[in-house]
Amino acid sequence: MSLSDDVIITKFAPPVLRQALISRTDLMATILGTEAKRLSLISAGAGFGKTTFMASLFQAFGEQGACRAWISLDADEKNEIRFLKYLTTALNNDGIINTDDAEIILESQTHNRTSRVMTALINEMANNDRHIILFLDDYHLVDGPDVSAIVDYLLSHAPANFRMIISSRTKPSLPLSSLRARNDLQEITDNHLRFSVTETRDFLRVAHHLNLTDKLITAVQSKTEGWVVGLQLVSLILKDKGHQNDLLQVISSDFRDIMDYLADDVFALQSQEIKTFLVQSSVLDRMNAQVCNRIMGIENSREILEQLEDKNLFITPLDEENGWYRYHHLFQDFLRARLMRQDPDLKKDLTLKASKWFLNYGSATEAVNYALEAQDYELSARLIEKQAINLTTRGQMPLLQDWLTRLPPHIANERYRIPIYLCWALFHMRRPVEAASAAYKAEEIVRKHAQDNLLSGQQLQNIQAELKILKIGVAIASDDVERAKILCLDFLASDAIPKAFILGAMYNMLGYVCYALSEFDQAKDALLKARENHIQAGAPYGTVYSDCFMGMTESALGQLHLAHALFLQAEELACQDQVPGSSGAANARLYRGCILYEWNKTDQARELLEQNIDRVVECSQAEAPIIGLCTYARILQKTGEDDKAWQQLERARKICRDDQLYRLAILTDYEAIRFLLKQDKLAQATARASLAAISVDPQPEDFTLQQWDRVLCLKLLIKVRLLMALEDYDHALNLIGHIHRLASTVGRTKRILECLILKALACWNSGQKDQAQLSFGQALKLARPEEFMSLFLDEGEIIGQLLQAAMTHQQSTADIKGYIARLMAGLGNTIIVSSRKASGNSYLLLEELSQRELDVMSLLAAGESNAQIGQNLKIKENTVKWHIKNIFEKLGVNNRTSAVLAAQELKLVV
Question: 287: which strand partners?
């Protein structure tokens, strides 16, 4: 299949069960039985036999005739696209389902491909009448927002014949409480996996042929607490019968001492050659024959690795073709501790050789990690400096920051690029105080280098230009956009001729601050220049941010479709540059999710936000996490998850407090007060407003503001909502008019619309029906071209009354009535649209049909079945169903007969 070249095929089968297994019939029956749950979670620490138990289940389900798919996960699959490749390949094995459609989508660069791949897979599962069991082993290695969102989607939407069995060392970040509430979760913990005395006896006597006394077996079970790896160590040492008495003496001591004793004895039984190999190769997190030969100066590593595998000496194969292995983590810890005791210098030497080998192998990340572990900080600094530009231009700031902060101060004090790169990483991660400190340190070093004539004139000019950019970045990370703009203009006024990347970064920053200050024309000009310079510099991360900032600008101006296209363009650029998991891609997806929410595509919006919020919180400009969390809170409130919604608002508030984002803090106050008012908690909302120095009493300064100011205008909007809750509509209407005028001067369409809607609500509630309809009509006319939905729907039930009134208003045109119908549908109301009564028509086309939908509609009118339509148009039957669903929505009908009648009346078919 087309994806096979990019996956390791040995990950699609459980490990071979090489020895006689202990029958765990009762435990297995809880999973194999008819009352089994949607998800079986096997969660326990290392060495409890999770994988072996899973392999036994895999075999048992096969005997029952179920379709089985297995994936042995590792950290590489934490990336959502790579995980999907493995998932798709696993489900295609043995013809479980047809994954052709999913593969085509996965290999494309189309937007929203994750959800589209999942839909394709789930639809194919529904066509399989056999049970499908997906096994995910070592899930803790991939647990994170991307993969968890995919797994959660599978658990929520897959057909009833689908089940999942997961093993993990930690509790995964899945909605376990929801699964428990639906009785869809079965949990197997370490307590379930511990061997009883009887199982311990079978394990030692039957599986390992050890003739032990009951007293010894009971003592071993007690001290190991049924821990399978501990028992395995016991079995290895007790194969030498003479050690039974020694073991009985040690059994009375501390468990840690037992493990040391057993491990030493296991180790002691090996030949000197094997001992040396085990100890020296333990510095490697993964190994093959080539790297082992290189660091140890030997030539027979392949044969030794095969011997270790044959002896089952706590070594795990990672693949088949290239011979990669790793040690069991506990055994590796023991071996490393032994090496450190025996020869610390040798450990350092071996680790350094590993660094150089992995650098030549093409894995710079591993090379840096080994150099840092060896504490060769000069080498580490050189390697990091070589990788830093690549990491910076691709937005991998957390990794860069982690490396740089592991270097000791004396290294940073000698190399000015170290604090410069650290500042780049820190201000992108919204840590302005630390970033400012790094920038100051860099200035000191550069000044000293200049005094010592260690820098050429051009070098000094380039560095000084970069330092100026860093100061702008620190100001933006502090959300001090006014100071950031001053610094940008000072930079442009200077004589500096910076490199394209630096100039691109400066224009990005200028574009962002102009956006934040509602200077939208200047923002667009700056961002176009930023994009041009970043393309010239070959800096995809900067280009992604240019598109994101431009999208944010268009969104504020109310151009939702253009904004969505820009966010999608940014996301696709990040994926094309092979950094789909970067913070730039996450920011683009998060903002695209916000647009989808505004279009009332709540499920799609939720998926994007849940998958990307954590990464955006980790690394982004100041506004992104706050906007994302506030939007996510609205989604949760809409779906009735009020407690979880409040948690997101509190998380946003904490970020503002911790990062000192005072300008954005008022946005979290605004969303929190809206939330409380929707719950009729006026007293709590008023108290929250008081903390932000907002009073409902008339204040002279309420009307003194002459130009749009985000903080002050949001405070006025808070006051308006509190006044409306108190039914002080006259005062509220005066403030709404003032805010509307200010928003109009800068073109903030979303705020203009909010003012018109609030005015309509205030007039309607105060009995001024005509004025309410006039204001509401203006809002509908302004909002319809960009299909604003949630801006209306979030205001509650009275919006429904205003929509009903607007539907019957004589001046409402057909396109406005279609828009109203879609808004009513979003509210969950049913209305009869009859905008063409004069001509006798009773149907309204809510949205134009595409050419493909017209083709489907024609065949539908001819009485053809879904299968026949698919054959005629050469498309799959599921695709036909999808087109028919869209046709029903656009015609406002719910069955085929009504669709045909509507299409005939609207002259869409003959």
Answer: 325
27: CB partners within 8 A, 6+ apart: 53, 188, 192, 193
Q: pLDDT value at position 40? A: 92
DSSP string, 693-736: T--SS--GGGGT--S--HHHHHHHHHHHHHHHHTT-HHHHHHHH
Tell the residue number behind the tokens 């407690």, with chain if given: 643
pLDDT of residue 18: 53
Residues 106, 4 contacting (CB under 8 angstroms):
no
- Which residue type does 576 have? Q
Measured distance CA(828)–CA(806) in Å, rounded? 17
The 10s digit of each residue's pLDDT in 339-349 is: 999 999 999 99
Query: In degrees rounded to 5, what are phi and psi of residue 436?
Result: -65, -40
Q: Count CB atoms within 10 A of the CB of residue 66.
A: 17
How far apart CA 65 and CA 130 sit, in angstroms, is: 8
Tokens at 370, concatenated = 């080994």
Chain centroid to CA 878: 29
How far is 351 from 371, CA to CA, in rounded Å? 7
What's CA 463's distance to the chain center, in Å? 35
- Two tokens, residue 483: 């100071």
- Check: CB of residue 540 under 8 Å from CB of residue 517: no
Residues listed for the chain:
910
Q: Measure the CA–CA gap between 612 and 625, rounded to whole angstroms.
A: 10
User: Would you state the structure tokens that stand for residue 273, as one six-digit string?
Assistant: 């050659």
* Whether the predicted model's global pTM rises above the 0.70 cut: no
**pLDDT tens per residue, range 362-384:** 888 899 999 999 999 999 999 99
Highest-scoring range by mean pLDDT, 214-228, 296-310, 865-879, 881-895: 296-310
Count CB atoms within 10 A of the CB of residue 853.
19
Please give the pLDDT value at position 242. Answer: 52
Q: Are 782 and 749 in contact (CB under 8 A)?
A: yes
Q: What are phi and psi of 71, to 5 degrees?
A: -135, 120
State the Cα–Cα distance between residues 524 and 536, nearest whole angstrom. Answer: 19
Residue 533 makes CB contacts below 8 A (sequence gap 6+) with 500, 501, 503, 504, 507, 542
Q: How far apart are CA 651 and CA 803, in angstroms?
A: 35
For residue 764, give the 3-state DSSP assignment: helix
| pLDDT > 70: percent of the chain | 89
Report CA Rg, the chain.
Answer: 32
Q: Which of 65, 302, 50 is nearest to 188 (CA)?
A: 50
Q: For residues 278 and 20, give the distance between their C-alpha atoms in angstroms, rounded to a whole number.
A: 27
